[in-house]
Design brief:
The protein has about 300 residues and is mainly α. Helix content is about 75%, strand content about 5%. It contains ten helices and five strands; from the N terminus they run ββααβαααββααααα. Helix 2 runs antiparallel to helix 9, helix 3 runs parallel beside helix 7 and helix 5 runs antiparallel to helix 7. The longest helix is centred in the middle third of the chain and has 34 residues. It is globular, with a radius of gyration of 21 Å.
Amino acid sequence: MSISNITVFMPSVLTLTGIPGLESVQCWIGIPFCAMYLVAVIGNSLLLIISKSERSLHEPMYTFLGMLGITDIALSTSVVPKMLGIFWFHVPEIYFDSCLVQMCFIHTFECVESGILLAMALDRYVAICYPLRHAAIFTPQLVTQIAAMVTLRAAILVAPCLMLIKFRLQFYHTTVVSHSYCEHMAIVKLAAENIRVNKIYGLFVAFTVAGFDLTFITLSYIQIFITVFHLPQKEARLKAFNTCIAHICVFLQFYLLAFFSFFAHRFGSHIPPYIHILFSSIYLLVPPFLNPLVYGAKTKQIRVHMAKMFCS
């Protein structure tokens, strides 16, 4: 079934290769990946516990941070266990339907994370540009509605990717996926049929999500910087800017890695496959790993409550 010159009809099992070209060192690559995964799960869980238990942190900013933590845990858990199974235990097989489910989870959580970063940018925009109206605008009801809309948008946009593969593509050149996880284009490229529609829709989803979210995040921070630089006191400018540093760091590393992975997969034919797959894997692990560290280091309230929790 895995020979490339045989056309396979609706394969039941796929084989993930891991990182082609680095098979001999995959067991060592798994060690930092596992460490980042553990830090991501523990760090984001601590953020969730602190933001839930401390009433002073029951604000929109920390609610969105908690949502980001849940998304990061879910995203990394969708990828890392199977990846470590390939690297350490040489279990590359995965059921075709399970592969589609993993693909759906990964891209859904990516869309959700992008939407949460947009919501956090809008929250900072209102808090700094219209501080007296912030509490009236970002009510608990609005925060709940934003969470529902972000999740629904991701599900609606990603579900057709799964349907277009499951019900449109039936014949495959090979069952070997040259990747360490089930990525949309990695699966689509296995097909022996016309994949033009799948490619176009994948591009549409990527540009719709990233284009919309990045545009409004950028506009929000342009307005924030204009407002901050017009503040009369230097201390007030530094305090306002400091509340945005963590978010700026998080969304920059998320989108820079996302764009590299996206364009390398579609247009980087000259890039060695192991470079692209390694960066794609890092892209899914680094944001969940860094987010709790960045917010824990740059947010005073979280630092104080974390120190209090460990001391007690």
